[in-house]
Write a structure and sequence with these properties.
With 165 residues, the protein is mainly β. The protein has one helix at 81-93, and strands spanning 2-7, 10-19, 22-27, 30-38, 43-48, 53-61, 64-69, 72-79, 97-100, 105-110, 117-118, 123-129, 132-137, 142-147, 154-155, 160-164. The chain has an eight-stranded antiparallel barrel with strand order 1-2-3-4-5-6-7-8. Strands 9-16-14-11 form a four-stranded antiparallel sheet, with no helix packed on it. It has a four-stranded antiparallel sheet with strand order 13-12-10-15, with no helix packed on it. A hairpin with a 4-residue loop joins strand 5 and strand 6 (53-61).
């Protein structure tokens, strides 16, 4: 998964992948192999591939992660860029408009039919992207006016999927 980490006016690209019994973490251009273990409600143990180990305290409030390590405390906002892009699109779209693919993928199945009335948040279709199935939801109440895709079809980012009116 890819994220944006914001701290003190800085933004860093972060990618996290499961690897063996731990994780591979990319921060900007640097990869680290780490084990991350919860040892209590807020206590965590972080061990790097070279054997270096850290104990830290982690508290999460929404997107903000407060991390205390070695007498210092850092507040980091973690943002899922895909979710942020989806929220911006929903805000811009308002009550009607075209639902577009946010990333390339394959349409697994349609959850609605042309002419169907949908409520905001209702599932429209399932799009498989990056080996994950994502339910694409209605950004507003409305009627499905047009469906531009079929199950099994591959789509590129930005392609029209469904029109809600």
């Amino acid at each position: 998964m890819k994220f944006i980490a914001r701290e003190g006016g800085r933004e860093l690209e972060v990618e996290v992948q499961r690897h063996a019994g731990g994780y591979r973490v990319r921060v900007e251009d640097r990869w680290l192999e780490v084990d991350f273990i919860e040892v209590g409600k807020y206590a965590r143990s972080l061990r790097l591939a070279d054997g270096t180990q850290y104990s830290l305290v982690h508290h999460r409030d929404g997107n903000t992660h407060e991390i205390s390590l070695g007498g210092s405390t850092l507040a980091v906002e973690i943002i899922d860029p895909l979710a942020a892009k989806r929220r911006r699109r929903d805000d811009e779209m308002g009550a009607t408009g075209v639902v577009k693919a946010l990333m390339p993928g394959r349409v697994v199945r349609l959850l609605v039919a042309k002419g169907e009335v949908v409520k905001k948040g209702a599932g429209l279709l399932i799009l498989e992207a990056m080996k994950m199935e994502n339910e694409i939801q209605a950004p507003a109440d409305g009627t499905v006016e047009e469906i531009f895709v079929t199950p099994g079809q591959t789509v590129e980012a930005g392609v029209d999927l469904i029109t809600i009116g």
